Amino acid sequence: MKLSRFGQSVLIGACVVVTGLSPAHSQDREESQGMVLLRGLPTLDTNHSIAIVELDPESDRFGDILSEVEQPEMEHPLHHLYYSPNGRLYATGLDPVCSLAEIGLSRDAGGAPVVSGFTCLDTQGQIVGEDIMWATSNGQEYMFVTFMGGTGGDDGGSVGVFDPQTNESVKVIEARKSQVGEGEPYIMYPHGISAFEDRMVVTSTVHPDLATGVGNVLTIIDLNTLEPIENITVENEKPLDFPSSPVEVLFARPSIHPDIEPAILANTMFGFETWKVPYDAGSKTFGKPEVIYSGVANETAVPLEFYGNEDELFISHALPGVVKRYELAALPELVSSGPDIVADPGAHHMIFFTSASGRKLIAVQNNLLNLGNGAEDDPTDVDFIADLNAHTISVHDLATGERIATVDFKERYNKGVDNIEGLFGSGFVHHH
Amino acid sequence: MFRVLLSLTAAALVFVAAWVVWDRARGPTATPIADFSAPFVFGRFSVPADNPLTQEAFALGRHLFYDPILSGNNTVSCASCHLQALAFTDGRAKSPALSGGVLEFSSMSLANLLWGQERFFWDGRATSLEEQALIPIQHPDEMDQDIDALMVELRASIKYRRMFRRAYGDVTAENTAKALATFMRMLISSDSKYDRYLRGKARLTAQEEHGRKLFMAHPDTKVSLRGGNCIDCHSQFLTSGFRDALDGFSNNGLDPDGTLPDGLMAVTGNSAHKGFFKVPTLRNIAVTAPYMHDGRFKTLEEVMDHYNDGIVVSDTLSPLILEADNAPDNGPDTIGLRMTPEEMAAIIAFLHTLTDEVFLTNPQLSNPFDGDT
């Protein structure tokens, strides 16, 4: 009996030494680690998860998953990650059972980050969560979430307003086109969200089933009353013969850079354009929308995200898979600040960080939506979208755009990669 | 009957002997700290690979921290100048010196030392907690203890021999330092009202929230943003100084060039560091008066008066302090934030949300010689 206790304590001792050392080691440089949402691919028999990946090409562990936790059991995975200003991590979700979740984070005794659980939040029936933004209404901060599916129906869509402390739903901002009356502002399939002073803008993109309907307007919400007050149509070219489907928006504003004249920038997913809508803060009126970038003319399609750092604005275009870069100070005009960063088809979200040797890098997640692949007999395949899924994260030199390394998640982990954030702070400044 | 007794005694003796041999021969046990968890937002930390956090090291470190055996005259323990109820400060402007009089510096609060600057003491002269731990023990005016003599004393104690063996092996100066360092690493304060607010479990009052916003904002008169600018040096979550290089040290305008103490310059030899001191954590700041490296301010009101209009210019004064002015049109008479009394009161109200009663009363961090813990 004594002997077995002795053996036991030796064993415990040995385990502790091993676990005690390795996390401390992997913690050396956290700034180059990405938090990613991985999607299980039905034909490859993998599950949805959230993972921390090393993205510094100079690290021996480049591309390694440092830790991974499975998402709650559901068909459709979590969609986008966002840190609140207080460092809490949230995810929007595509599955109606979890359209919005808070993800618990802590650290273990070696200092390594630990995903300690998911809490699905009560959204009052709002489904298909997309983007999150923290903004103030009458001096009070709220968490605003766009729900492309809203509370359901063919012309659904809502903006959920939540108490940022308790996560309780405070209000559902909804205005169905079929109900508001001719010429009245409506909200439909909202996706992108941004705000300046007391004006918020959301886009009307496309019905979550990608078949029922497609939108072509921006909706302005008055943050004093939390009511929609205006629709602005952003539609011109129709290369796919679809409505334009505005997706991400950025309210360019002086707090981003003091030289900026306020204006909304909006990317249209099926019009392939970037629009500018000037804003006069004095009279609180919007000027005439105008196309400032044409995908048809520039041979790019499906423009998606806006990301900014201290001096540049980056816009991802899923096809051919490039990130274009512009002078931040010149906004709302798009003045090129360098050659395109050539990523992979589906170029979408990105993070900025430095390598161990101090090289400035950008990592681009290349996947529009991981809907599987028809060639593999995947029932979730949508032909057009399958072309936009490289399932990779490409890492580039920020100054030159040169690709340094790539992690192919499908090849290496049999999963798709839906979203990326830096481990904390993420190196982006202006995402919304 | 006697035979039975004899054989029982013999059996007992064999058992005891075997147990003693086994207990001695046994290596350290190294049990991980049960349920260790630290807030994610405090950020990355690393523990030296040769001194992982374990229950045994913590227990030993805690005993050493509270034991006056560590001092030459066996009357002073670390806890003499670092009292838990005062967030491990001593409530004095400057700690008393063994030879009479006072030490050069005010005692420092010990909380969240796993994070923030990787240099310790006001002037940053120790580069690890292991290195730091042996300094006060040997300092003639703090504990005035010869290290070798201390090892002899510790080895004479069965209890310490056992605790060292379980934690590390032998009773050595190095293991003494490691154990103290482990105890200090475990002084984690993460349950203040502010922490609970960050986790979404508490609401700040309107005044506290106003103070929080001011604490986090750099004033910008162009966009009429008012700010206290504290976050430029005292970080958002830890409220201590930054970890990178020497970013966590600065000159916050206490003294003019003529009387500016050396501070960090004493360590780096770089004159650009003259008057630089470690940016301290503000956690539990409401219970750690008096303030600054020499304890010159008795209250948080005095501290705020300093930042508001009492900044003294010197060659190495932080430009972040010079730039942060909420009333640049009021002329050059005073230097400071120039906020309203309401704004200063709001910042002070926010500073009070940093008090962590759980930490200040946590029995696991208390004196193990009190009662039977």
Descriptors:
A: 432 residues; mainly beta; Methylamine Dehydrogenase, Chain H; 4-stranded antiparallel sheet; globular; disordered N terminus; B: mainly alpha; Cytochrome Bc1 Complex, Chain D, domain 2; two-stranded antiparallel sheet; 3 strands
The biggest sheet of chain B amounts to: 2 strands, antiparallel
Q: Please give the number of β-strands of chain A.
A: 29
Would you identify the CATH H-level superfamily of chain A?
A: YVTN repeat-like/Quinoprotein amine dehydrogenase
Distance between the termini of chain B: 42 Å
Task: Give the low-confidence spans of chain A.
Answer: 1-27, 378-382
Instruction: Write down the domain tally of chain B.
Output: 2
Uncertain runs of chain B are none
Distance between the termini of chain A: 64 Å
- So what's the CATH class of chain A? Mainly Beta
Beta-strand proportion of chain B:
under 5%
**What is the share of helical residues of chain B?**
25-40%
CATH 4th-level superfamily of the largest domain in chain B: Cytochrome c-like domain
Give a quick account of the main beta sheet of chain A: strands, pairing sense, barrel closure: 5 strands, antiparallel
Q: What is the number of helical segments of chain A per DSSP (H or I, 4+ residues)? A: 5
The CATH topology of chain A? Methylamine Dehydrogenase, Chain H
Rg of chain B, please? 24 Å
